[in-house]
Every structure is written in C-alpha cells, then in structure tokens.
Amino acid sequence: MSVIYILLTVSVIVGVAFFFIFIAAVKSGQYDDNYTPSVRMLFEDELVKSKTKKSTDTKTD
Amino acid sequence: MESTTCFHCGDDCGNHTITFQNKSFCCNGCKTVFEIFNENDLTCYYDLQNSPGAIPKEIEGKYDFLSQENIIEKLTEFRSESIEIATLYIPHIHCSSCIWILENLNKLNPNISDSQVNFGKKTVRVTYNSEKTDLKSVVLLLSSIGYEPYISLNDFKSGKKHINRTLIYKLGVAGFGFGNIMFLSFPEYFEVNEYWLEQYKPMFRWLMFALSVPIVFYSAQDYFISAFKGLKAKLLNIDVPIALGVSVLFIRSTIEIMFDLGSGFFDSLAGLVFFLLVGKFFQKKTYDFLSFERDYKSYFPIAITKVEKDGNENSIQVYDIKKGDRLLIRNEELIPVDGILINGKAKIDYSFVTGESQTVSKQSGDKLFAGGKQTAGIIELEALKSVEQSYLTQLWSNDVFNKDKEDGFINITNNISKHFTITILTIAIIATSFWLFTDSSKAMNVFTAVLIIACPCAIALSAPFTFGNLLRIFGKLKFYLKNASVIEQLAQINTIIFDKTGTITSNKSSNAEYDGQSLSESENLVLKNSLRGSNHPLSRTLYNILEENNIVTLDGFKEHIGKGIEAKHNNINLKIGSASFVGKPEETSILNTTVHISSNEVYKGRYTFYNSYRKGVSKLFNQLKKQFDLVILSGDNEGELENLRKLLPAKTKLIFNQKPEDKLEFIKYHQSEGAKVLMIGDGLNDAGALAQSEVGIAISEDVNVFSPACDAILDALKFKELYQYIKASKAGIKIIKWSFMLSFIYNIIGLYFAVTGQLAPVIAAILMPLSSISIVVFTTVCTNILGRKLK
User: Fold this and answer.
1) Is B99 close to A36, i.e. CB distance below 8 A?
2) Chain A residues near residue B104 by CB distance under 8 angstroms
3) CB B41 within 8 A of CB B104
4) Which of B24, B240, B371, B408 fits as disulfide partner to B227, beta carbons 3.0 to 4.6 Å?
5) Is the pTM above the cut of 0.90?
6) Angle at which helices B195-214 and B166-189 cross, to 10°
C-alpha cells in the first residue's frame, strides 16, 4: 500500500476540518463585527489601574 | 479670556462653568455623570479619550412604557424567568471610551451580567437579571450617563433581525476548493512523466472533480440563477457568458478526466468562481451604523401616554391610538398622530418634517400634525386620525416606496455584455465550422475552448472593484452611498433638484437685519443682556449675532412664554418679542420671521431673520450650472425669493410652496420628459422626492441622527464638494471603460490559443488569474489616484 493514500487522506481531512471550523466561526457571528474586538482586547487592565501599579522588573538586578 | 471646555462633553462652558475636583463642567448633567463614574472607579473613561461624553437629557416619564409586558416582549431577543437580553441602539457611541464604559455597565448596576458593544452598528447588547432589575432601569441607567438609547417604532415591528451570511459561506467554499485544486493540479503543470505521478493521476483528477462540485453547484449558483432570469427577460446580462463559461468548463473537464483525455480545467474553474465572489464581496461595502431604508417608523416612539376618561394615565402603543383618544405629549416628545390641541402651550419643532428649525407656536383648538416635536412643557391633544392615516405618514402609501430603483436600470457591465456575448458566440461558431472542414476531431475542443477563455471574468470584476473602492473613498470623505449602483446612476444625472430649508440653508445659524430707528447705546446694552437670559431659539440666534457688550445686572426681567421678553435696566424698559406684544399691529406682508423691539412703550423697529445659506452654495451652483439643470423646490413660502435670485445663477428655477406630494409629482413629470434627476433634501417631507428620483441624497448635519430613506447620505460640511463627487463618479465610469479595453486584450490573446486549437490547461490557468489580478490592480490604482485628487 502506498503512503500517498495516507498522506492524501490526512491532508483532505485537515483541510475539511479547517473548513468546518471556518463555517462554525462565521455562524457564531465572529465576522459580524470586526472592529469592536480590536479595541476591546486593549482594555482588560484598566479597572485595576487605581490599585498599585505593578512595576515590571527587568534585568535590573 | 480663554474659554474653557467641559471635561465631560467637550462643549464650550461659556459663562457658567461649574468646577468640581479641579475640573470644569458645562452643566450639572455633565458633572453628575462624572460623579457617577468617579464613585465607581470608572474615571478611566476620561483617560482613553478626551471629553468623550454627552450631556444627559431630561427623561422623566419618557420610558414608562418600558414596564409594559408586551413591549418588553418585542424589544428583548431572549427572555427566561431570570434572564433577559436586549440589544439597544445608542447613537452616541463614537470612540473607544464609549466601548469601555458600556462594557463595564455591571460596575454601575451589578444586576447587569454582561454588556457587549458592536461599534459598527452602534448597539449594545445587555444581559441582565430580570428578577432584580428590568429593561426600564437599564435604559434609565444608560440615559443617566449620557448614552440614551434610541427606541423607535421600527424596533417594535422588526423583531429579531436575520443576518445574511451566505456570501461568506460561498466565498469560503470557493476559496477552500480553489486552494486545494491548485495543489492537486500542480504536478500536471510541469508534465513530468515520473512513474509515481503517472500512477496516481486519475485519483488526483477525481479529487479535483470532487472539490469542484460544491463550487459549481453551491458557490456559483447565483450566476446560474441570474443568467436564467436574464434570459427569461430577454436580457443578455453579464451572468449569461459567466454561467456559460462555468458550465462548459465543468462539463468539458469532467468528460476529459472520464475518458482520460487530459487533466481538465478544474483549477481555472475554481479560480474563476473564487475571484468573481471576491469581487462581489468587495463591492458589498455597507455602513452598518447608517440606515438607508428609514421611513417614519424610525422617527416615531413606540408608546404614548393616553389620558383615560376617568383621568388615569396609561401608556398605549402608537398603533393602538384611535380617533378621539386624548393623548399626553411631554417635553421633547414626538406627536405621533394628527390631532387638535386641547390643553397647554404648544411650541412645535417640525424640523423632522420640514427641516425648518424654528418652532411654531400653537393655541388650543389648533390642528397639530404628526411628526412635530413638542419643545415646551406638557400638552394634551385629541387624536383626529390613526397613525397610518396621518398627513405625514400617508405619503408612505405611495407606490414609489415599494419600488426597487435598481429594477429596470441596465448597468454598464450588462450593457457591454450584450455585444460581448453575441461576438463570442459568433467567433465560437465560425472557428468550429472552420475546424469541422479541416480537422473535425478538434472542432469540439475549439468550440469549448473559445467559451472557456472568453469567460468574462475580468469584465465582471472591473465594475465591482472600481465601485467598491470608490464607495470606500467616498465614505472616508463623509459621503455614504447605499450601494455601488448609486455611483453609476450619479454619473448619468442631468438635473439636480435641491430642497431649500436645511439643504442649501444651514439649520444652525440664521442672519438677522435690523429695520427702524436705531437703538441708543444703552438700549443695545439692555437688549443684549436681556437676550442672554432667554432660552428661546430666536433669542439665542440674535444674541450670537449682536456685538459683544458688557454684562450688566438687569433690574427686572420677565419672559412671557410665546410672546416675548420684558427687561428693565436703569430708566430703560425694553420689550422684545412678537408685534402684538410690543404693541404694534401685525403685518401680513412680511413672510420672514421677525422680532420687534419697543423701548419705554415706543416702537423702535424689528429684526428680520433670513436663512443663512451654507458656505459655498453660490460657488457650487456656478460649477454645476454648465452641465446640469438646477431647480430649488421648497416647501416654504416665497420670503427668500429675492435673496435666492441674488445668490444663485440666473437659470436656476425657483419653486415654492411645494407639499411633499407636489415634490414627488414634480420629479415624476420631469422624468417622463427624459430627465435623470438627482434630488437633494433633508427632511421627511422630501422622502417621496428622494425615493422617486434616480439618486436621492440626504443632507445631514450629524450623520448619526436620522435622515429619511435615500440612496446616499452626505455630511452637511461636505455639501460644497458635491460637484467633485459627481465628477469622480464620472471618472469612475471612465476607469471601468479602460479596464474593459484591457480585458479585451487578454481575451484576444486567449482567443488566439483557443481558435488555433492549442489551449492547454496551463495556459488557461495562467491567463485567467493574470487577467483578473491585473484588472483588480489597475482599477484599484486608478481609483486611489482619483481619491487623492478629491482630498
């Protein structure tokens, strides 16, 4: 049996898997708003800012 | 003295700055919002963006209808025992601070579990615990921090909106197939006769076949449907040669691999469909935050307060209003039906309807028309008609609103496709019959090859990419178009019709001229100072026009609502207001708004207000007059006739006293005489005209605020650039024509291979993407150069 059959099956399966992930992503509404998430991801830390600011220690020692 | 701006909203604080924690605020509303944020550790709001806020409005009683079961049912998208989810449209969303504060709503109300902003659509989706809080308190919270949601009759009817994502799916399928087929067909391109490759050739080919089946039957189905529809209507649209090309490609390739004649053209087929869909996708630029389909429903409130016979007040839905109902209209509320004023002082702002910003005073017993906004206190009225039958809303029963403008419009691509298809078929037949006599075995090959290579991928891509890019360029310049075909229609315009109020005049400021005995210095001083204390729109306007004067404290000041102001300083007793108020008989000959002044009971003179025209109106008209017929179509009286005559080129037609229906009929009449009309308007009264015209452009001072249904929305600041936009549309058409030339050259090269019977799959696989990509590059570069000129 030639290894090419295995390779082909694997590549097609991988391709189809990614294709279905894409469909699922579209269906979940991921592509409906492609601006807000880009801003949102910069926020996370804003709320703790009033507390002590963590100073990042780098190579000072 | 430098003026301070409000820390919260960025407005000029004027003379009454409120200082709090070393920060200045323009009003108590802004200060309160700051306090709310400050208490909840949310002041980051101000770090992200300078003065991002809006002044919260008085809303007492306005949202009482939100506690009604049936209304909550319609507005929420999900309801269970304890959880409700509602999506609210908030026009004020404009920066990253807005996103941040709205997504941290749970800090202000812990019963809100989640809130998510969609910036493009300007909506926030709020999930809250309905046992502990309700929709009304969420809305009130949003309003109190300056993010008042806009809830209109429109939300009530539509319910859940269905988002159409089929184009993305089709594009995904085509892209997936295209990529994989390219990989699989790679070995064939080099024609290496290596043993193992030969061995597995059939399997590779059948895999390609399998991948191309969904492309043909799913991704490309729109082209078949459109071609079929076109043929049924005896129209050779561009989809006919495309559908022909796709089916010939598929059938010939299938036959080739079936009988082992060759590798087929699956790669070209997949590439073709993929590129065409990319073009379609690119052209579909939409502005989510704008709506081009608005009718009166988006202006009208959902519910209104009804006064029952026993004096109880009830919220009822606007659709349930019956003739004879007594309705309560609060300050800042919209009148939903025609009615008669029973109680209270009505000062109606008809700017939604007419674009006219000056309020109109009404006495009890007067008729009020739907669409007006009450601006002074509470009034009571008796409904004369139901919502659908009111004067304003009746306009929407006109057929124009059910017609699709794109029907019956043959676009440039389809226009050329007619000749193209016939030529290609002729070439195919001639070439086939030639080969039938010379070498009949090749005849079928040549016939299909011609149809394959001539498949007008490049032609079909020219318009989407040119228009798509222009749409984006216009959008950046604040000229928002509904879709690409508007550009084409705009390029064919020969008549331009303008509305007057709000379109060529600006809503914000007016000019006033004084007539009569000149006022003494001290009288001027009192005049200016008394206007300062009044909030009437005319007083504000006049105050801004008059020269600066010292601020003095008046000895006496009294505002008689609906009449005028009485002010006392030293020995001067000034009366400012309507003619009857200052003791002068009303003149009927003057059509413009006037303010009269008397000093110590002696009549002095009057200020007459004139519309102030937008900057550059005169210049714009002079640019336009060479190429277009110009008409001013106004709903107002002839008061401005003389001014307009002076301002505009002589051949401009000026027509006054036009009702909404008259405007519509006027355009219809001119269209029947062959005019291609561009209508530019702003109010709901232009809605019929905007729909009837070839292109209807709505002018808007603030694009987030509502404009009537139209094909394009133009920011008022860019009004003077209108001529540039029309010129750019025409240039866009020229670019498309040039790219047609370019794709013909490719077609001729391809046809040479096809007709001589030497079209190898590899040639098709090179020529097709090459032509498509070079067309895309050509149109993009050209439109970008065009766009740079616009700025």
Assistant:
1) yes
2) 47
3) no
4) B240
5) no
6) 160
